[in-house]
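Section: Multi-chain targets

For targets with more than one molecule, the full set of components is provided together so that the structure can be written out for the assembly as a whole rather than chain by chain. Components appear in the order listed by the source. The example entry contains two components.
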Amino acid sequence: MKVVLDAMGGDHAPEVVVAGGVQAARELGVAVVLVGDKALIEAELAQYNLSALSLPVVHASQVIEMTDKPAEAVRAKKDSSMTVGLKLVKSGAADAFVSAGNSGGVLAAALFGLGRIQGIKRPALSTFYPTLGGRCFVLDVGANTDCRPEYLLQFGIMGSAYVQRLWGVPRPRVGILSTGEEEGKGSTLTREAYTLLKDSSLNFIGNVEGKDIPLGLADVVVTDGFTGNVVIKLSEGVARLISSILEEEIRRRPQAMLGALLSRSAMGAAKGRLDYTEYGGGALLGVKGVTIVAHGRSNAKAIKNAVRVAVQAAEGGLLTAIEQGVRGYTHSEVPK
Amino acid sequence: MKVVLDAMGGDHAPEVVVAGGVQAARELGVAVVLVGDKALIEAELAQYNLSALSLPVVHASQVIEMTDKPAEAVRAKKDSSMTVGLKLVKSGAADAFVSAGNSGGVLAAALFGLGRIQGIKRPALSTFYPTLGGRCFVLDVGANTDCRPEYLLQFGIMGSAYVQRLWGVPRPRVGILSTGEEEGKGSTLTREAYTLLKDSSLNFIGNVEGKDIPLGLADVVVTDGFTGNVVIKLSEGVARLISSILEEEIRRRPQAMLGALLSRSAMGAAKGRLDYTEYGGGALLGVKGVTIVAHGRSNAKAIKNAVRVAVQAAEGGLLTAIEQGVRGYTHSEVPK
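Its structure, encoded as tokens over all components, is:
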């Protein structure tokens, strides 16, 4: 198993990315191909004891920056770490690609370098979302800000394939994010997508509301990339708000400060369960190659976990599962 | 000051609504007109010592139920508590209307019974959102699931008028909810609305992301009613998730349980700052009469606080502020 890691992607690249790559190689026992500025990467690698680890470096002279316009940058920078890294996957030299860089850039580079799976209209960015009972799978969280109903149907197919194959849930409950439980609630987009999902062979449970995502009512939550992006960023903001307000109130009360000290390990455990770095990264689904997009602010642990997600997806046959899932819908106009 | 309260609206009507109405009359010193089934309301009122309080009852024989289709129900039930109550505001017999009932029903009944403020294309449902620094004002949170860019401009105008007039913020910072800070990020809708807002005389601060709402980056956050509805329900769900996970982790550790006991008042204070019942209800902006929609699950305190919001809006001249705000934009095609 060989995973390509974009050493230049992310707010703390290359140092943190290389650190995460070293951790991944050590803990997961896989080869991690580091792509980017060879001199910089090797300077970072020099700090570690790498005996018995497989961490080849592949040089790429350019970087898709966070501030770059994705499609333009991918076209202009033919030797970017993203493009060079994805070529290794495309050619079969590696099994998966991970980047914490410009997510629009990864999307554009993957569309250009890997292409779409046959029948897929729009690739979607997915994420794990921690819930009361465990986790759920949300997509699209940002690849497509304007969607059509049939895209949402395909997001449901891809999400269901992922959760079935990689989480081992036999019949994932697929819900569509809307403004009320009843059929007929929601926007024109969600109402039309509802009909397509209801008529599909997915285990469609109907509309779910905003509150139902963290409560874990669905295994897969389908939404357009605009709303999905708001969902993940808002969740992060709410968590920060709650933690800050709690901290403020505790600081005002000496007795509560003692209490907080005693509860520290419980609070740490709760934070850990909600921590994105534990989840690593979200798969870009629908392109012809396992592609994982990690958070731009990823620390080394988050990078390592993103590599873990990539390994699971590659070993678990994610692409085959999506191809099979979408096949039933591509040869007929109306999904069965 | 006379506020009409829909005694039949909400999950716990009429008992909890009447209790809230009594609290409001007592604590705010206003007259609260209770509209609904006279016998039921009077049976509830009989439990209280009402000396010196003004709580007249106006009979209405029908109820718009939570499960009713709003527009149809409003047309069919001419003697519903909503329709009867709004007539009192329309005629000038009362100053404001409050309901915790079917929010679509309130919208339909207010559109039908009060009409729109001249120049307003679509009324919007608003809410207060607790933030790190205080609170912000979010709209639309559910009245319009499909929006056009000019609606969002008007939401900005109405929200700014509200926050300026009722919160005393001289130049409210107006942001549009989107998927990235930079101009050009977002959906077709938000990009077009961005241009309108930028060209307006509002204090427009550009795009805000999901996380920026709780962090308090804007005083007014403008969004379509689909996304806004997801935002408020998701926030509620995330808060419940965090509180449940924290509780689970505390229960596993005897020392943390002692700690939690010592931190109890701090936790209570933090919860209070995030508690929707403190905020009461959201104004339905753009109709010709002060109309406040309270949460369906409102307890008596939430009802009382919704009446407080109604009193503030009526006393503060909300309608005049919105009329003035929108006037600058109604006589020209292109907003200045």
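Residues 331-336 of chain B have pLDDT under 50 and may be disordered.
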